[in-house]
Amino acid sequence: MISFKQLPLEAKAAVAAGVVFFSMMLSRSYLAERLELRTRRWLLRLQMALFANALMLIGSLHVWRSTVTTFSRSSAASSFCFMPWKIAVFMFLALAHSSFFTLLFLVAEEPYFFSLAAYTCLGAYIILIFFLFTLGSVEQAYKFLAGRGTKAGTGNKNSRTAMKPVLAVMLTVVLTVIGLLNASRPPTVNSVAVPVHKLPSAMNNLKVVLLSDIHLGPTVGKTKLAMIVRMVKALKPDITVIVGDLTDSEAEIIRPAVEPLGELNSPLGTYFVTGNHEYYTSDVSNWFELLKSFNIRPLHNENVKIVSPKNTDDWFCLAGVDDIEADVLRYSGHGMDLKKALRDCSSEHAIVLLAHQPIAAKWALQERPDINLILSGHTHGGQMFPLNAGAYFLNPFFVGLYKVGQNTFVYVSPGTMYFGIPMRLGSRAEITEIILRSP
To answer: Using the 8-state DSSP alphabet, how is residue 438 labeled?
Structure first.
């Protein structure tokens, strides 16, 4: 029987991740109702940070061996540059690992430089791991196809071994710079016309501005939110909707950064539904109160009638559901409840639903196929390579406009900002202008 001490470091990290994950499940199942809200909030975030770091440790060991240990066995170890390189790799990994802890200690009105640096390193870390794995797989495939009988010289073998991490690092640096530049640009404004069955003709061309996944927190602050609000006001929408993941922090801590939302003045109202990250803050009630103070109405499994300014008999039903993560976290008083959200919303009038996750949109249509339009977010369009592929396969709707059945559409926003990592690769931040068209 192999003892824990005899396990390789990667296996020890995997065991540690398993232990933390098990503790998270125990906390959700048995401690959720027994712990004080603030204690539960800190415990959940700490567990998530420790779990992520335990998993990352497996990749970090591979990065260290590929970019440092490999060269320590060659003549490069005696060069003047090797020690600075070794320190740089260590600092890079340390910053990447520390990124998750900034949610606990470094959130303010504007992002701290340390948080931006840490999350940038996390983004570069993900890209580097991908290229090291991909190039390693290509190398193994080449060896297999070339045949085991062919033996290369030691010099050529060492040269090829050194080329893999060098190429991976170069590609990582280039893509990191491109991703940072892309994310630093203002969101693009995408105008989409959507035919809405049974929308009154008096409400034809009604303009709805869709915001999603702003993620106020360690790397998004008041300046970026103020920019978004200015862009929204310039569009002069009839309605503004925020479909979740507005924040990654507690309301009290980040309140000054939220103030620009008070300038939103859409004539038919501004509405909000929760995303999964609101529940990670464990501070949803305080967020609801803060948003109400800015004249933003949370739709907590409820609906409102959007009445035409021209004729009070012309209206449609705008509904919102809690994010499905509330059920997973057993968040008291919250959870997706479509029946409650659509109470008094009949198929005689058009129905527009706000639901943060595309999977929730799918479930909603299975239960109520008479919904005409669902507005979602959550996927970020994958946000950055190589995470795009995972987001594509894990969600029934990925990004953009989808037609479902005869009279139903689903629109998934790629996000108005980004989560943590201030990078975008293969996606673009977006403010969506939805133009509702009557048939």
So the answer is: -
Tell me: do 139 and 263 sit in the same domain.
Answer: no
Tokens matching residue 188: 């693009």
**Nearest-5° angle of CA 169, CA 124, CA 69?**
45
Domain count, the chain: 2
CATH number at residue 206: 3.60.21.10
At 26, give phi and psi (nearest 5°). Answer: -65, -40
Q: Are residue 213 and residue 90 in the same domain, yes or no? A: no
The mean pLDDT value of the chain amounts to 87
Query: Which of 127, 150, 183 is the endpoint of a domain?
Result: 183
Q: What predicted TM-score, i.e. pTM, was given to this entire model? A: 0.89
Q: How far apart are CA 336 and CA 361, in angstroms?
A: 11
Quick one: DSSP state of residue 4? Answer: G
pLDDT in tens, 256-294: 999 999 999 899 999 999 999 999 888 899 999 999 999
Residues 276 and 151 in one domain: no
Say if residue 277 is in the same domain as residue 223: yes
Q: How far apart are CA 275 and CA 39, in angstroms?
A: 21
Look up residue 14 and give its amino acid. A
Closest residue by Cα to residue 60 from 7, 115, 2, 132:
132
Tell me how crowded residue 418 is: count the other CB atoms within 10 A of its CB: 26
Q: Provide φ and ψ at 437, rounded to 5°.
A: -115, 130
Domain boundary, last residue among 183, 204, 232? 183
Strands (E), 196-243: 206-211, 239-243
220 neighbors 419 (Cβ within 8 angstroms): no
Q: Write out the residue range of the structural domain in which residue 301 sits.
A: 187-437
CB 116 within 8 A of CB 219: yes
In which band, very low, low, confident or very high, does the pLDDT at 149 lie, cut at 50, 70 and 90? very low
Q: Do 159 and 213 sit in the same domain of this protein?
A: no
